[in-house]
Design a protein that fits this description.
12 helices, eleven-stranded mixed sheet
C-alpha cells in the first residue's frame, strides 16, 4: 500500500533561500519550464532591483516540499500595479475603483517583463501540481486581496486552474516552427512566391544600405556590445514615450550567470554599430526554443527591424536546430514573414462576485474575438497552400 505524501507549503520572499541547484533541478523535471524560470534569470531580476518591492514586484514564491525536497513552486508576486505584465487588466482595475473596491495589491503568477509562455505550476509530478493548485487557491482566498492572475501558462495547467474555479483568457502570439529546414533558403522555398520575393527584397535593402550582421552568443558578446544593445533598448522605449524596465546591470548579471542561453544580433555599417536585437534560447533534446526579446536602432534603415528581429533569429534557430522561434505578441505583419498565430492562455480569479461575473462575460466576448482573429490570420499564412493543408 502506497503511503500518502505529506507536503509542506511556504511563501519564499528571497530565492537565495532556495539553492540554485535545487530550484533548477525542479525545472529540469518540468517539460514546460523555460530559461526565464531559471534561478539565475529570476535572481538577476530581483538582485538588480528590476523586479523588487521598490518597483511594485514583491516576490512571494509559493513552494511545496516533501521528504524528498522541493516538489513544486509557483513564481508568485504581490503586485502594486499592472505594469510589465503584457496581459492587460487595466479596465478591470478601473472597474474595481469605480465600485469603490481596491484592485491593488493583487497576486500575480508570471515572470516579470516576460510575455513568454511557460510553466507557472512548476512541479516534479502530476500529484505535486494538483497540490499546488489547491494551496495556491487557498492562499489567495484567505489573503483578502482582490485577485489572482496566472499568465501565459500551458493549456494543461490552465485547465487545472479552470477546474478549480478560475476564469480563462485567450490571447494571440506569433511563433515560427522549424520543419527541418537545412538553411534559410529551404525555409523560403516553403513560402508562397510573393512572400518569398518580398523577404528577399527586404534583406537586399539592408545589404544595399551597407549593413552587415553578426550573431553572437554567450561569452562571445563583449562589454561594448552589451552597452550598445542596452542603449538601443532604451531608445526603443523612449520612442514609445515609456520607461525601460531592465537595467544594464541586469543584462550584465545574465551574461555572467547564464551565458549559454543568450543570443545577440549586432548590425554594423562599417565599424559603427547601428542596431541590436536580443534573444534567449533553450537547447534541449528534440528541439528547443528561441525567444525574441528586445531590439533597438540608433538610426532608421529600411527593413532593418525585420532583418534583426525575424530573419536573423530564424537563421539562428535553423543553425542551432531549434524547433520554435517565439516572435511574441502584436504585429500581424509577422504572418507574412513565416510566423504563425498561436493561442495563449491565462487564468484569473476575482474575489468580488459582481466583478467576477462582469469579467467572465468580458472574457467570453474576448475569446470569441480571438477565435475570429486566429481564423483570419491563418488564412493569410505565408506558406504555400499545399504545406498548410
Amino acid at each position: 500500500m502506497k503511503l500518502p505524501i505529506h507536503y509542506r507549503t511556504q511563501l519564499v520572499d528571497d530565492l537565495q533561500r532556495i539553492g540554485r541547484d535545487t530550484w533548477n533541478a525542479l525545472l529540469a523535471a518540468d517539460p514546460d519550464a523555460t530559461p526565464f524560470l531559471r534561478h539565475e534569470f529570476l535572481q538577476a531580476l530581483h538582485q538588480t532591483g528590476c523586479a523588487s518591492a521598490r518597483t511594485g514586484w514583491t516576490p512571494a514564491f509559493l513552494t511545496l516540499t516533501d521528504e524528498r525536497g522541493l516538489a513544486g513552486a509557483v513564481p508568485l508576486y504581490w503586485k502594486g500595479h499592472s505594469f510589465g505584465e503584457y496581459v492587460f487588466d487595466w479596465a478591470w482595475a478601473q472597474a474595481h475603483e469605480e465600485r469603490g473596491l481596491a484592485y491593488y495589491p493583487k497576486w500575480l503568477a508570471a515572470v516579470p517583463f516576460t510575455p513568454a509562455c511557460g510553466s507557472r505550476l512548476i512541479a516534479r509530478d502530476a500529484h505535486a501540481r494538483a497540490e499546488l493548485v489547491e494551496h495556491l487557491l487557498k492562499l489567495v482566498r484567505e489573503s483578502n486581496l482582490s485577485s489572482l492572475h496566472v499568465l501565459l501558462a500551458p493549456q494543461a495547467q490552465i485547465e487545472m486552474l479552470a477546474g478549480a474555479g478560475m476564469m480563462t483568457q485567450r490571447g494571440v502570439q506569433f511563433h515560427w516552427r522549424n520543419c527541418g529546414y537545412g538553411d534559410f533558403d529551404q525555409f523560403l522555398a516553403a513560402l508562397s512566391q510573393d512572400k518569398r520575393k518580398k523577404i528577399r527584397a527586404e534583406r537586399r535593402k539592408v545589404r544595399e544600405a551597407g549593413v552587415e550582421l553578426e550573431r553572437r552568443t554567450g561569452s562571445e558578446i563583449t562589454e561594448g556590445e552589451w552597452r550598445f544593445f542596452h542603449r538601443c533598448y532604451r531608445m526603443t522605449y523612449a520612442q514609445h514615450q515609456s520607461t525601460p524596465y531592465l537595467s544594464l546591470a541586469f543584462f550584465h548579471q545574465l551574461a555572467r550567470t547564464m551565458p549559454e542561453n543568450l543570443a545577440l544580433i549586432v548590425a554594423r555599417r562599417g565599424r559603427t554599430p547601428v542596431a541590436s536585437a536580443f534573444g534567449v534560447f533553450d537547447s534541449r533534446a528534440g528541439g528547443g526554443t528561441l525567444y525574441g526579446r528586445y531590439w533597438g536602432a540608433t538610426e532608421f534603415i529600411s527593413c532593418l527591424h525585420f532583418e534583426c528581429c525575424y530573419y536573423q533569429m530564424i537563421e539562428f534557430a535553423i543553425e542551432r536546430g531549434l524547433a520554435v522561434f517565439e516572435g511574441g505578441a502584436q504585429g500581424a505583419h509577422k504572418v507574412a514573414r513565416g510566423l504563425d498565430p498561436v493561442p495563449t492562455l491565462s487564468a484569473h480569479w476575482i474575489a468580488d462576485p459582481v466583478m467576477r461575473r462582469a469579467i467572465a462575460a468580458a472574457l467570453a466576448r474576448q475569446s470569441h474575438q480571438v477565435s475570429r482573429a486566429l481564423d483570419e490570420l491563418a488564412e493569410r499564412s505565408a506558406f504555400k497552400v499545399e504545406q498548410s493543408e
